[in-house]
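FAQ: What does a multi-protein file look like?

Like this. Sequence, then tokens, then the next protein.
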Amino acid sequence: MINDKIMLLLCFILMPSQINRFLNKIQLIKIANHWYYLAICLYFIGLVIVLPHNSSMDTDYWYRWTDFALQKGIISAYRLVSDLNYLPVTIYYLMLIGKFITTFFGKLNDFMYIFKAFFLIFDFLTFLFLTKFLLQSNSKHKVLKLIFLMGNIALIYNSYFWGQVDAIYTLFLLISIYLAYQKKYFWSLILFQIALNFKLQSIMIFPLIAILNFDLLKDYKKILKIACFAVLLQIVLWFPFIVKGELGRITTIINDSNGYFERLSLNAFNFWYLILPENIVSLGSDRTNKFLWINAHYWGFAMFFSSCGILLWKTFTKLKNRKFTLGQVYLIAALLNLFFFFFNTEMHERYSHPAMIFMAAFFVLDGSFLLSGLISFTYFLSLNILLRFFTFQAQIPLLVNHKFIAWLYLFILIYAIFLLWKSQKILVIKPHPEKISFSKASHHA
């Protein structure tokens, strides 16, 4: 068991270091030496040492999909496993983890908890990224903010306790937004493409990415370069399916992603829990429940697109001209995610994960402990009410009340909009006093 832990720790340490080396090479991110980073590294090493062995409702999916893909090949897995509804890039990563486990540990089924360590790598990289922001900020409370990040178990709950993969695409979105803000258009769009290949929900951030990359329209040569590289990358990612003539398997997953579960909500405590009885929301179809002859599915779309449209219409010019601070850009990204999560039907409880990370970035850069704390608390309640890893929640009736959690999400939405309006009043924007650079790091705590 000790040898197993050592092997897992070596992998956890080496894999992020290789990713960091790649990011340094292409001049995207440079992690400088600072005791903050040492604290983050020690924190995550400690998490791996005491990695929980519990299973979630998704563990069985990971096992069946990975085992079948390793035994029969990924094409056969998509042909024969009826509930495999994730895009290939995620399955490639699951197969990589599965191969590592079967090579160094033993039977896949006996070591499924190790998947969490590989998902946690992306939380670790997210923390390093947020810490980089913290070092570059003008905050007088950097140590307290670092303590908040490290003590906030909601930030790692998805990967560490639940064993899900939302941290992966969220990290790519986090970096993509930053790079777009810094006018590094090529890698911004490529990383967004990778995020989209992990989770189709990434599309909700595309309008923001598009606005931040708006100036790219002036350079047709660069557009052509990015388009060619993006097409080549997509061919590489889908190459096994293209060769075998099975590309239709992927397009089917993409087409079926809208309507795969025709339910008002899949444990996402959102708008629908506020206006309808709980039994209808949890069991009712979003296609048969109608208001004014329009079903709930399309009402959700209408509210989502309307709210996003109003927000982006009000902020378009300032976003394009970089007159919002980077923190406020992350706040706008969080609002887009919350609009997606709160108004749409067929939402899972985990789909507000990016908003929590974006609000943590806003907290680190511009400072709003209440907002970041509130969404972290609400997200924790949403996941723990199902996984029940921490039993104290069940002892407090209010904390397991689905409607109460929905009201919390509504308050967070309103408060986030208020903060955006209050800080810059949307119409009068003050530019950020400094441009964050990843080439130099401040060494002042």
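And here is the next protein:
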Amino acid sequence: MAAGMRRIYPQTPDLSVEDQQKLDTFRAEYEALCKGHDSADDLSPEVALQLETLEDALDKAHGEPVYAAGDIARCGAFVYLDSNSGLRIERGYLRREDEPESAAGSSAPPTKYEDGQNGDGDDNEPCRPLSDRLAAELSACHTQALQARLAADSGVALVALLHAFALQTYYRHARLSCLDIDLRPVAFGHFDANMADSRAGKELEAAQAAAGAALPRDPEHLWAFLTSQTQDALLALLSVLIAPCANAITAGNGQDMTRSRVGDALSDALGLDMTVYWTATAEGYFARVSKAQIVAAVREGVSEEAARRIEGLKKVEMAEAAEALFKGRGWLPEPLRAERTETARL
């Protein structure tokens, strides 16, 4: 529903001199209390309470992120009911037609050199712009040299990559980049509506919001901002930007096996535990498979006795019974089970 829109995030306000002094004081007290303690287990109840109080004070001293007045006027919000019929509001979406003119950028058409000659004019003739053909050839030489140098400088290459990706993700101004490279985020709209409120979805949304809030508001300042960051900060941003493009979706029935194998390898490298993100429920799984499959799953994941107890139930009751039996067991259906892959085969 937000296709083609840019997401604006609230920014942490600048602190006054007095507030900054308070923040520095709280931080110094917090760091002093932490010294000499390797873990939370080493803390006495009194120190733990002091640290908790200081953490609250630090959060308040930083100030709540706020939207700029201009963003409030231009941006809109999506208001809808989530899967639990609770009200959900997602703010800060900006339509392309509402973009401020300064952000839209302008590209004046090149002046055409319509000489019609081979360029050998009279020495007394006024200077004319280069022909389109010559200008294009010179820019091609520039591009070729740029590619050669970029291949030899991984630091600048990383910044260029992030610049292109961040523009597409947070500013929707891909034309401000000279890299012909596109992000293709995976869309989940045609899958289970509950995915929007899943733990994984919320984790990614929070990471994207935090990364977006740290970026400059003006896309023209993005390059300078990125070049000022540490490599660790750049790599952390890269993780957030490429994460929505990870795609291990298969059509089932053995199709897309290459994507499946690479997805398994990536999951293995990340140490992904799907029991953290997925639980077998009546609505999400058991009601969507056959009774025979439910019984087989219970036989495998619970016990033979439990499988016999539910065999005579109707489908709805069987699905609900299976959900109760699997609660807390961490059972996963075959497509979600970890398969250790041999990277060399990929």
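Q: Is there any per-entry metadata?
A: Some entries carry free-text notes. For the entry above: The chain has 13 helices and three strands.
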